[in-house]
Design brief:
The protein has 406 residues and is an alpha+beta fold. Helices cover 45% and strands 19% of the residues. The chain has 15 helices and 11 strands. It has a 6-stranded mixed sheet with strand order 1-2-6-3-5-4, sandwiched between helices. The chain has a 5-stranded mixed sheet with strand order 7-11-8-10-9, with helices on both faces.
Amino acid sequence: MTIAYHEATLDNGLTICAEVDPTAASAAIGFFVKAGSRDETPAEMGTSHFLEHMMFKGTDARTAEQVDNDFDNIGAVHNAFTTSEMTAFYAHTLPEHLAAAEDVLSDIMRPSLREADFNDEKSVILEEIAMYDDQPFWVLYERSLEAYYQNHPLSHRVLGTNDTITNLTAAQMRAYFEHRYSADNTVVALAGNLDFDAMVERIRSHCAHWPRTDAVRAYPAFNTTPNEFTIELDNVNLHYQLYIIPAPPMDDDRRHAAALLAQILGDAEGSRLYWALVDTGLAEEAQAQYEPHDGFGETFVYTSCDPAQADAVESVVRTALSDLVDSLTEDDALRMRSKVLTAATLHSERPSGRMNRLGRTMTYLGTYRSLEDELRMLDAVTLDDLREVAAAFPLTPVVTGRLTPA
């Protein structure tokens, strides 16, 4: 695979980067904004996600229907997402339609944000919040993050709350947009079969007038405080448990070892928790996942089971955590390295996967790291690396959350 990296920065600070592959049969483009729920004030909670919806409601040049039609006319696979740390808008299409996809994306990045659209979409957001409130894992996950991060903005809910969305005004949204959706707070990532210089000129023609605002992210410190809680609900039949453990941040090279350690502990198949809980029938689900953030990181351990088995499942999880380091073998490291490397490689075979990884990496780190370099770092993780990351970030839950039938 012959892939060349290119990067350019416009005078207003907009970063454009690409992994160009002339042999690819498709191409992808995404606009990544360093704006998520952690960048909102408590009163603005949910604004980033609300804005994601509003970007598709029309611009000075297109109605909402025309936005959909223009994507459909070129057969583009397009979507958007919002996390606690970024919001992204992207499209995957045939190479000959990449310019048209860029035209639509760069246009919707400057939406009209009409008051009537804002009021209509507010009810949609409230319905989405209600939908997630019916999902036990999501309820437990949000409450656990609040218990872990407390007053830190990483505790903010991506969707917001009924109160914050109900009270949010269009004027507040516009002010947030004007500050955060600036050229110097945005990365345009491309991948696949494309002419980089030509795409830079297209993007320049559409985005060079975007303002620079010097938007910065706040990094308040916080100290983890052990916390346990239980939520009782009438509409659930299973018992759910969620544990949060500190882990390396995104810019820490130990993240590769942390990711492998979490996989050994709680991969969906063939992990310690799988064999001890799922294979034995004690639990319906038992998984662990490492989540790196900008400045922080966590490992989540999640189980669901019959309420009658709750104590037994929790005992098994805590034993697995305390025994994991001493039980590690070279075979564990080799097996999970192979599995993670395979998954990352398969994901990268499509330009959309490459574009997404590139956009996330540049938004988080501000510097290019090739997939090949990341894979080499993963493949170099040793048994000692696993032990060292566990020593630096002990596998002791800081937060233990439970959700159970009332």
